[in-house]
Amino acid sequence: MMDAVVEISFLTESDRTRWEVLARGKDAHFEVERDENSYERTWRRLLDDERIRGIAARLDGRIVAVAHYLFHASVWYSGKCYLADLFVDPEVRRRGVATAVIEWVARDAEEHGFPGLYWNTLEDAPARALYDKVGKFHQGLIYYGYRRDRSQSATQR
Question: Would you tell me which CATH number, out of the four given (3.40.630.30, 3.30.43.10, 3.40.30.10, 3.30.70.600), belongs to the domain 7-134?
Answer without folding.
Answer: 3.40.630.30
